[in-house]
## 1
Amino acid sequence: MKLKYFICGFILLVLLFIIGISQAAAATNEVNTNQQVSIHDAHAYPNPFDNEKGETRIKFKIHAKKSCDSALISVIIYDIDGKKVCTRSDTSSLKSGYNTIDSDKLSWGGDNDMGERVANGLYFAKIIVEASNTKVKVVKILVK
């Protein structure tokens, strides 16, 4: 009986954490007329994914108010405890308007920065675009 309550409590804690992250991620989509770039439609595919057989691609759109020759785009993967697992980065030129980002360099195969496989579970991807302005978006990733 105690195990049942423990599991229910743990699930509730995880859901509250996810809701908090989702609200933080939603806040990054707010329109601010001073922002030079904003991130939209961020998702990981496939999600969940099997880290023994493949990888997940982190795709999103960047809206730029004006063109940028070289924007640094980073995806930082965190575990459920908020510990950094790995970082993937790429540079891209951005045209004015919407830019679809789908780079092999931003894919994640379920490994950490040392090349070791991570445990199954829930992970978060933080997207950072460094152009004339920095914008952050959080995406949930499930490794099965």
Note: The helical segments are 2-27.
## 2
Amino acid sequence: MSYQIVTDSACNLTEETIDAFGLEILPLTFMVDGVQHRSYLKGEKTDLRQFYTMMREGKVITTSLPNMQETETTLRRVLDAGRDVLYLGFSSALSGTYEATELLMKQLAGEYPDRTLCAVETFAASGGEGMLVYLACKKKEAGASLEEVADFVRETRDHLCHWFTVDDLMFLFRGGRVSRTSAWAGTLLNIKPVMHVDNEGRLVPVEKARGRRKAIKALVNHMEQTAIDPANQTIFITHGDCIEDVVLLESEIKKTPRLHRVRRELRRPRYRRTFRTRNACAVLRRRAQIAPLSAFGRFFIARWWRFCACAPARGRLSSNLFSFKK
């Protein structure tokens, strides 16, 4: 039976990828100076750099879940067309988007008894969520059923590895991720946190590096140590409008003999505690669980993101790396 893959704009996939797979995207929203904006508009190229420019200018930005009335309209349109729904959602540890959408789907299931509505939490965000959605679409293209794709995502999500770093700890403080003392001390010592997302979708500090360049190299080192079959998988890189860091990160990855296939994405705004400038992240498959940072290390950087904000006066952003693990 025909089915539609639905996800939210936190997946950070490009418009070209979204259109190529025929995805339905539920756009998260954000407010700037009392004006509501959507992080994704179907058929339009989202001007993400304008969003990050507003952050640097010190604009007050608040975020919200997708509009549930619009979400219901989207789901009903799919169901009325005779298609089932597979929703792959943003980590509930970082946003209420998945829980709200899952509840709505349960309500709609009673009205459409002949349709299948399946919600699967990715326990991921940004390029990590995007990678799972991308792979799910590939499975669908290969002829997999809704149930088979859902099972694939459930089996694969615990092997997804997000590696990321942020440039300015003051934005982690503003997002409630670190104390004022930790942010101040870390900034004074030029500490850059290296973090990942655990199997419950939470942000976890793993290491601290002195300086931006060392932090980016640490992303690559962790990726190389934990990745499985890296030569045959594609690495996703997302960033908060810091293309120069992406170039550095990509070059470091390509210096590593086993790592070379890379996709870049610019991150969309998601929710208050995760968006920031100068964030870089990469995603890949990993081999084993990752040990969290010590209590002493947490004094300086505590917890991350998912994607957060950054110092507008300095205009620095962040980088993220995504792949798979065992």
Note: Confidence is low (pLDDT under 50) at residues 267-277, 287-318.
## 3
Amino acid sequence: MAENRQKIASLEQELISLRDAIDALNALHRSSADDQSNRGWIHESEKGFPPMSLRTPSPDATRLYRTAFEAYFFHGDYPTAISRFQEFLTTFPPNDLTDNALYWMGESYYAQGDFQSAISSFHKLVDTNPYSNHVPEALLKIALSYSELRNPQKAREFLVRIMDSYPFSQAAKSAKTKLDQLE
């Protein structure tokens, strides 16, 4: 049973990682299309992407984000990933990759066992990007971090919040399982 839960958790993380990689590739594509459009190579109607509420990241921002994400995802080099994500967040204005950077920075802190910093990063994501597709998972990681810090009351608070706010999400299913374990 525990082995199945671990496999499910691993698959959930892999799915999040793949979604993030797709987001990063889409942002790269948008940057490329915008750059080509500015040079007259692609007509506006040929871009194929709806207008975004945030700004498309610059090529430099995209490169730095990609470096940070690769350090996290492919190399497990969490200190480098954190440093690069922090540089990305402080150097560039909010853009389509900001929520991803905050999420993966939080995951990097979590992987290192720095649960307080993970909570801070995930909170910033939730507070500044409330419509991000990462919010349910960020809330779950906040709850899990509080659990690791031996604060079951705060963990329960966030687990219930996930189940109330995102009842059909995978995070809600995980929250229910964790809540059952806490009780």
Note: The radius of gyration is 18 Å.
